Amino acid sequence: MTQLPPPPTSRLLGGSAIEISPFAWGMWRLTENGRTVAEAASLVHAALDAGITLLDTADIYGFNGKDGFGDAEALLGEVLVAEPALRGRMVLATKGGIMPPLPYDQSAAYLPGAIDASLRRLRVDTIDLYQIHRPDILAHPQEVARTLEDAVSAGKIRALGVSNFTQAQIEALAHFLDTPLAASQPEISPLKIDCFENGELDQAMRLGFTPLAWSPIGGGRLLAPKSERDKAVASELDRIAMEQGVTRPVAAYSWLMAHPAGIVPIIGSQNAARIAECVQALAMRWTRQDWYAVLVAARGAKMP
């Protein structure tokens, strides 16, 4: 059977000149269990040594509902202060626009300060990819675009992205931007398949931005499937994984990467070995039949 093309070992982030790895490493759990600077540094090294250059965090990471806002950025910043050479090895991405206890704020009164605060916590002069974390319904996209363009002009941000935006919200923001969006960050996994048929990935290909998939193993549900649907998807992934000598998570990452939109899975593990194993996905090969078998299991129905 004809195999789908292998994913590239590196790619450009959207239409930018920023080269990224085919995976990203996410840090929403970086501060869990009181992780020290040395412990955080070991995870950063694990990602970089595995060839993962895109490191993704957010100002809300570390917030527990009462305190901790900015803690993940601050911890990464301490790692970078201790080892300044690490900054040159990574493409640094963060997100903002959520202000506890209010849900979302991308007004001109808040967002510029949030960008500056991220820069201070991360101890850097420039953020490679800055993403609006969730859309603020009360902010006009032209106002948001103006803030982002000002930050790009000031050299604070190199590329722009969004996270958890609808297609219409992406179109609206993109309309007011002079700098094209380089990335979106939706939830995509073999258990979260809406984007394959609702036009999200088609929009990414049309506008030329890179989809960064958060929760690519279904928030851990693929590791311990409970529902019949989850078990069916895990079974199909296991069949392919066993044939190619990899684990189920690796097969899940590879399945996403086989899509022509160039999906970049964000590896959320805080375990060095699990971070490192993701690169095995680059050696996997999919036939259309096997790829669609996973999709059919996720849909719970045959293709129309």
Automatic annotation (TrEMBL):
<dbReference type="InterPro" id="IPR036812">
    <property type="entry name" value="NAD(P)_OxRdtase_dom_sf"/>
</dbReference>
<dbReference type="InterPro" id="IPR050523">
    <property type="entry name" value="AKR_Detox_Biosynth"/>
</dbReference>
<dbReference type="InterPro" id="IPR023210">
    <property type="entry name" value="NADP_OxRdtase_dom"/>
</dbReference>
<dbReference type="GO" id="GO:0016491">
    <property type="term" value="F:oxidoreductase activity"/>
</dbReference>
<dbReference type="Pfam" id="PF00248">
    <property type="entry name" value="Aldo_ket_red"/>
</dbReference>
<dbReference type="InterPro" id="IPR018170">
    <property type="entry name" value="Aldo/ket_reductase_CS"/>
</dbReference>
<dbReference type="InterPro" id="IPR020471">
    <property type="entry name" value="AKR"/>
</dbReference>
<protein>
    <submittedName>
        <fullName>Aldo/keto reductase</fullName>
    </submittedName>
</protein>
<feature type="domain" description="NADP-dependent oxidoreductase">
    <location>
        <begin position="25"/>
        <end position="291"/>
    </location>
</feature>
<dbReference type="GO" id="GO:0005829">
    <property type="term" value="C:cytosol"/>
</dbReference>
